[in-house]
Structures are given as C-alpha cells and as structure tokens.
Design brief:
Largest sheet: 7 strands, antiparallel
CATH topology of the domain at 509-584 and 612-694: Jelly Rolls
Shape: flat
Number of helices: 15
Strand order of the largest sheet: 22-23-34-25-30-31-32
CATH architecture of the domain at 509-584 and 612-694: Sandwich
CATH superfamily of the domain at 509-584 and 612-694: SPRY domain
CATH class of the domain at 509-584 and 612-694: Mainly Beta
Length: 709
C-alpha cells in the first residue's frame, strides 16, 4: 500500500493534523488525546461563561467548527446541570459526525487509545522523513544513528548502546526490539476502567474491548460478549472480504471518480452562471432603486424651486411696503400730484393695491410651506422584503404547521412537517407575532430550530398569535408556510392531580399511578347497585376532586374525556360543600324522572339545580350539554353540542364566574356565576363506564421527544 495515499485517513478532524495518541470515541471516530481534552475544556467553559466565543479562543490548537459551537450553545441553553445528584455524564461534541456523544461517568478516562492507527501514522511519518534518521537516545554527543528500538524500554539504541543496556544473561536481554521508531505501544492492552486488568473479551453491543470485571459487575454485565480471538478472527475476515470487494471494483471506482471530476467542472460552471444571474437580479434592483431615487430627488427639487419662487415674490411685495420703497414710495409720489383729474385717474387703482397690502399685513401667511413632510418615503415594508431576500428552491419543500399536534397550554408547542415526510432542510426558522388590532405595524419574533417542533414560553394569556415557518438548506430557503392562528388559554394554567384521599372511592374509581387519569368501570358494583332499584332513577355518581384548591385570581385547566364515556360531570366545588358533595342523596333519586310520580313540569329542574353543592356541566356519549338556564336556548336540541377533543375550565374567583371551553380552539362554550366564598376545588363525577385524563403541561422535552420520533 502506498502509505502517502492514505493521508486523508490519518488527519484528526479537530486539529486537521496527523493523529497524536488518537482515542476511539463511542461513535467509532478517532480524535487526538490533546484535542479531546481541549474540546472538553471549551465545552465545560461554555457552561461557566454562558457563551462559546471566549472558550473557542482559549484553545488555539483546535479549530472547532461553527456547527460544533452551535451544538455546545444549544446544550448549554437546554439547561443541563453539571452539579446534580445524578451520576455525572460527560457530553462530547464529536467533530467527526457532528453529534453529541455521551462519554459516561469516567469521561476521557474511559476511552481506548487506537494503537493500530498510531502505528500506521508512525509508518507514514517515517515514509515522509525517510532521509531523517532516528538517533540513539544513550550515545554521548554527538549521538549515533540508531539501529533498533526496544518496545519494553521505549527507547532507541545504536548497536553498541543496545549491547551495553541489554547484556546477555539478564532479563533485559529478553526484551522485544524492532527497527528504529518513535512509536512505542504497550505490549498488553489494559482496561481503562479497571487499570490492572487486561482486556480479553469484546462487547458486541458497545463494540469495544472489555475485561472480565466489566462483564461480571460493570457496565457490560448484561451485554453480549465474545472472546477476543473470536472477535479478532470475525472482524478480520469481514474487513478482508470488504477490502477484496473494493479492490475487485476498482474499475467501477475509477469510473465514479471520472464522473465526479466532470461533476466538479460542471459545478464550477453552474456556480459561475448562478453568480451572473444573481448579479443581474441585483443590478435590476439597483436600476429600479436608482430610477426611484432620481424621480424622488427631482420631485423634491421641483417643489423646492416653486416654493422659493413664491416666497421670493412675497418678500419683494413686502419690501414694497417700506417707506420710499416700491408701492409705498410710488403712492407717496402720486400724492404729490395737484391736478385732481390726473390724481383720480391714478389713485383709484393704487388705492385698491394699498388696501390689499393692508389686509395682507393684518393676516400674514407665508406663501409656501417650508417643511417637506409629504416627501418622506416609508421604506419599512421594502426593507422587510429585502431582508427576506434569499434563494428560493423548488426542491426545498414548504413546511406545514400541524395544528392537531400543536398545543397551547402553559407553554406553546408548535409542530410542523414537510408534505413529502423528508427532512430536506438543515434548519427551520419559526416566526410568530401577537394579533392586535390597535397595532398597524406587524413585528415578527424569530427563532431558529434544528428540529420540527419548538416550545415557546413567552406568550401572553388570552391572546391570539400567528405562526409561520420556513426551511433553510445552506443559503437556500423555502417559501413561508401558511400562517396558522392559535389562541392561548384565557388565564394562567392551574396544575393539580386527582385527590386519592378526600372522598375517593377506590371500589368504583381507578387512578393511574401518577394520579393524572381517573376511570369509572361499569362492573359488578354498578350492576349490584342497579339490582336494588325497581323504579325509574339513576344510581349515585362517583365524585373525585383535585388535590389543590384556588383561593383567588383567575386560573385555567384542561382535560379530555374518553369517547366511550357514558356520563361525566365537570366543574368546581367550594371547600365548605365538599362533604355534602360526597354524601349527597339527591343524586340517587329524582322525582322528575320517576315513571309513576306524575310530575312532568320543568319547575323541578330549577329546584334540583339549586340544591346541588357544586357547579357542574354534563358530558357524555360524545356530547356537551349546556345546562337549562333562563339565558339558555329553550329548544333542547340547540343545547347539545359535539364533545370537543379537549375541554377546559376557567375559574375567575375575583369576578365569581366559571367558564367551560373548547380547549383545542380556546372557545367559550358556556359561562355562569359561581359562589367563590370558600376555597374552590376542581370537581369531577363519573358513572357507567367513563374516563377523564388531565392535560399534561408542555415542557421543553416535548419538542425534543417529538424530534427524536
């Protein structure tokens, strides 16, 4: 193999120089030992300084790319805490694959040196400096050229010094020696985690050598391992076959190289053509701007000349009003006329001019305006358009904001996707602004996103926002997506869990371990309760409340009801009526619905509603039932609405109002007064097979989790 032909494989991706003591990362890329330390130093320093600029300057040997520094800043902003109680895990931005690699608890100490690569680099260096000899380390000056190197002593010797330091009959005589070299590698590869143990197995899961202690009780206890000899034989056979295959395809490789050479030339030509087209486009813009500029300057100049002429004429007229000047001087001369007929002939017209001058003197107004406010150009829209000026490509798909997956709750989770389901863009730009009728100008807030979702936490409550997104691939960008308008909750989000103590009936209701979901199962308990009833009525509702109360302010919470739910009631209950709620006998029998009661008037509905200890609305069978109130429609059919996928409740303790919302669109379905004299608790009632799930808060991990999917 021509050793000089593989130089590209021997260059460190961090320092762009030949490898020096290369380490193998978990992603199987190699980086110099010193480069790893310097990158980790820059990475750790970014957490302390809050930025990456100073840390990048502190390591002149390595050249960390902008993308690597962006990843460091992104991880820094994500809130990873270095001083936590959890086991410390070192993240390393690999310069080879541009990914953040977890080095584990031991960090750099858990990495293997790549001695094979080190040996190849040494052979390359020797081939590059064949004329430079390796001198003996033990000769007195001047040193002699070495003839061999001892791998046990890690030193080079001439013949005389080697005999002197390795005499026959001693242990040193058994040392292993090779030709002159500066690359000394240990004879036995030791485990970096258990420094006294040699590696004798190969972990097929982690793809790295391990010792028997790693397999017995270390991090590879449950991993599949094989013996080192078996791994050596298997990997060598695979590598040999792959190399033979590549060698057999040499003609195909050369054909590809020829094709790539043509593509290089074609790329050069196409880039020059693209530059010319871009220059022509900008020249057209320059030409349009120059024409507009010239027209604007001409208009201003023409207006200036007209105004100056008017003002100059007015100046001359007023100068004529001075004594012995102009009109006054002429009038004074006319007064000297003694012939009445001649005087009258001239004085009549002169008197009219004098009267006009007198009137103009009493109501002085300049003949022209001095300001040029009408000639101020508004270029804000044009500046925005020019700011968005970029290359548009038909090959870059226009992203679409997914309204179903996007959520507006305690924070906003905005999700988008490409129609072709391909991630053709390198980065996305999400813009949003608050819809306000009072503001005439629109100011978009911008954020760059690496994935296809973003969590925003700086939005105002009870407000509508417009969102749009576009993709970027290098300097090429896609057109903006269709604007989507989403509304935030009407009040700050109130967080609570279902209370598993106060009045909770574990025979009828089932809570999940996190207490965010409750289910009522129509089992034997409901059948046994119904078996005792012989007249038309309904059985007792199973109530459950939230574990946190509200004393003041305005709050909002959301949940969704399973579609199969038969009957669910939701609302609020004051603390002084909780006991009455769980021991309410009015739920058992209602004479309004007894078959033989003879009652058929609506007056009992009002009595029944007023007797309830809490404010609730009824849901069930995929319907939302607006309560029968004087303000509600009289037609029962118009009081039945489709059940939204997510429901919300807004409680305003200060105003004594509670509203029930379609939480997906933040639209109020029903609002009524409520007595907030005590501490208010969220209340739920279920019957006949039903389930309620509390809406989970939006966190930053939601966006990361969706991107991983």
């Amino acid at each position: 193999v021509a050793i000089k032909g593989i130089e590209r494989e021997l260059i460190c991706p961090a320092c762009k120089e030949l490898f020096t003591h290369p380490l193998i990362l978990p992603c199987q890329h190699n980086v110099c030992h010193k480069c790893v330390k310097e990158i980790l130093f820059a990475f750790e320093d970014s957490f302390g300084d809050g930025g990456s600029e100073s840390s990048n300057q502190s390591s002149p040997r390595i050249r960390i790319s902008a993308s690597s520094m962006d990843r460091i800043d992104r991880i820094n902003r994500s809130g990873i805490k270095r001083n936590s109680l959890t086991p410390r895990s070192t993240l390393f931005p690999c310069p080879g694959c541009q990914r953040d690699i977890d080095l584990g608890e031991r960090g750099i100490n858990g990495l293997f040196r790549n001695f094979t690569l080190e040996t190849i680099v040494e052979r390359y260096r020797q081939a590059a400096r064949a004329a430079i000899a390796i001198m003996c380390d033990f000769c007195k000056p001047p040193p002699q050229e070495s003839t061999k190197s001892c791998m046990d002593c890690s030193a080079s010797y001439c013949n005389e010094c080697f005999k002197m330091h390795h005499p026959w009959g001693t242990a040193k005589a058994q040392h292993e020696y090779v030709g002159p070299t500066t690359n000394f590698r240990p004879k036995i590869l030791m485990c970096p985690e258990h420094e006294m143990e040699r590696v004798n197995m190969y972990c097929e899961i982690c793809r790295r050598p391990v010792c028997h202690l790693c397999k017995l009780g270390g991090g590879h206890a449950n991993h599949r391992v094989t013996t080192m000899s078996t791994a050596y034989k298997t990997l060598k056979e695979k590598l040999s076959k792959d190399i033979e295959y590549l060698i057999s395809k040499e003609s195909q490789v050369k054909a590809h190289i020829t094709q790539l050479d043509l593509l290089l030339k074609e790329t050069e030509c196409n880039s020059e053509r693209a530059k010319q087209e871009a220059s022509q486009s900008f020249e057209k813009l320059y030409h349009v701007l120059e024409e507009k500029k010239s027209a604007a300057l001409r208009a201003i100049e023409t207006s200036k000349n007209i105004r100056l002429e008017k003002l100059q004429t007015q100046v001359e007229e007023y100068q004529g009003l001075l004594e012995n000047n102009g009109l006054v001087g002429y009038a004074q001369e006319v007064l000297k006329e003694t012939d009445p007929s001649c005087f009258v002939q001239t004085a009549k017209q002169l008197h009219v001019r004098i009267q006009k001058a007198t009137e103009s003197l009493k109501s002085f107004r300049p003949a022209a305006e001095t300001t040029f406010e009408d000639f101020v150009m508004d270029t804000a829209k044009q500046e925005d358009i020019l700011g968005d000026l970029s290359f548009h490509s038909n090959g870059l798909e226009i992203p679409e904001i997914n309204e179903e997956q996007s959520r507006m709750y305690n924070k906003a989770l905005i999700c988008w996707e490409c129609p072709g389901k391909t991630d053709s863009a390198d980065i996305y730009v999400l813009e949003y602004h608050k819809l306000n009728r009072e503001d005439e100008t629109v100011t978009w807030q911008k954020t760059e996103v690496c994935g296809k979702s973003k969590v925003l936490s700086d939005l105002d409550d009870d407000s509508s926002y417009a969102f749009r997104v576009r993709g970027y691939k290098g300097s090429i960008c896609s057109p903006w997506s269709r604007e989507v308008i989403l509304r935030t909750p009407p009040a700050p989000v109130f967080s609570f869990l279902f209370d598993d103590k106060c009045g909770y009936n574990n025979e009828h209701l089932h809570l999940n371990p996190r207490r965010t979901s409750v289910e009522n199962r129509a089992g034997y308990s409901l059948l046994l309760g119904s078996e005792r009833l012989q007249v038309g009525c309904y059985t007792t509702l199973d109530y459950i409340i939230g574990d946190t109360g509200i004393a003041k302010g305005k709050h909002f919470w959301a949940f969704h009801v399973e579609a199969y739910s038969y009957l669910v009631k939701v609302g609020v209950v004051p603390s002084n009526k909780i006991q009455k709620l769980f021991h309410n006998t009015s739920d058992v029998t209602s004479p309004r619905y007894e078959q033989d009661s003879g009652h058929d008037s609506g007056s009992e509905d009002a009595f029944f509603d007023s007797s309830q200890p809490c404010t609730l609305v009824t849901l069930g069978m995929k319907k939302f039932f607006i309560p029968a109130t004087p303000a509600a429609p009289k037609d029962p059919a118009s009081r039945i609405l489709p059940l939204p996928s997510s429901l919300g409740i807004c409680l305003d303790c200060d105003r004594g109002r509670v509203g029930f919302y379609d939480a997906g669109h933040m639209k109020c379905l029903y609002e009524c007064e409520v007595d907030c004299s005590g501490i208010m608790y969220p209340a739920f009632a279920l019957m006949g097979g039903a389930a309620v799930h509390l809406e989970e808060a939006v966190t930053a991990k939601d966006g990361e989790y969706r991107d991983d999917i």
